[in-house]
Every structure is written in C-alpha cells, then in structure tokens.
Predict the structure.
Amino acid sequence: HAWVAAGAHLSLCLFNLLPVRPLDGGRALYFFLCRFCTAPAAQRVVTVCSIVCLLPCAFIGFFLLLQSGYNFSLLLVTVYLCFLLAARPVQE
C-alpha cells in the first residue's frame, strides 16, 4: 500500500512541475526566463508553454472520461487551469 501512496505523491509532484503558469513549474520557468529576457517576453513564453502543455492534458482527460465513463478529474483540473490562465492578470 505504501507504493500506491508513493506513486500518487509522485504523480502529483510531476503534475505540479508542468510549465503551466498557475503551477509551480510555470512560476519557476517564468523566474528562470526573467534572468535572460524581459518580464513581458518571459510571460509570453510561459503562456505559450502553458497552452502547449494544457492541450494534451485536455485531450487525455477527455479520453479518460470517455473510456471510464466517470473519471473526469484530469479534465476538470485542465479546465480549471485554462480558466486561471485566461482570467487571472499577470501578478509577477
């Protein structure tokens, strides 16, 4: 049972490191890019990376929903992150 818990925590860790702006990976990418370019340019790169990462997550989430009939968690999280990406002003 410990392996299942460890796998769940590892999956959550890897998901949180995706370069999507509201997640830790997106913030880390933004601050890393700010060392080499201007803040608006870094923000544009992070926004593009966010979209590139969220599109496959949406397709996989939709596929999982169709296959299982009830597992909508990845699709729901992806929609939530898309909403945050679109609605939230840049605060960095």
In short: The longest helix spans residues 39-68. Residues 18 and 84 are 15 Å apart (CA to CA). The chain has a mean pLDDT of 92.
